[in-house]
Amino acid sequence: RLEFYDAIRVISNNSVSCCVWEVLIDNQSCPSGPMIIPRWNQDTGYNNIHVQANNVFYCSGIEKGPHQISIHVSGCSTINSNYPNGDCYTGTVSSSSWSISAEEINP
User: Is residue 70 scored above 90 in pLDDT?
Assistant: First the structure.
């Protein structure tokens, strides 16, 4: 069980745009399926609107032992080529809080 919490935003330049946040384990997608947070911005102006993202994922097929958890941010072309990549941003200010947590659960 993995949980990711942070403020995220997508800015578009007069069109619909999109970004994807993906939780990675050892720089790889989850073996049982990618753990992604897609975010679209359909505003045609340059609005800097942050939203809180609190997501819980379940991932199976991970070997025992220590692992590194990270967040990869990319444009939506990785999941849907119909949307142009937006200007992706994570966090709000240097004092903003965020968390990534992992918990082993019995199947």
Answer: yes
* Amino acid 45: pLDDT: 63
Structure tokens at 31: 């073996």
pTM flag (> 0.90): no
Tell me the two tokens of residue 46.
């340059």
Give how far Cα 103 sits from Cα of 55, 68, 90, 93, Å.
14, 13, 23, 28
In the predicted structure, residue 86 carries a pLDDT above the cut 70: yes
Sheet holding 17-25, edge to edge: 35-41, 17-25, 69-75
Can you tell me the distance from the alpha carbon of 75 to that of 21, in angstroms, rounded to the nearest whole number?
Answer: 9
Residues, the chain? 107
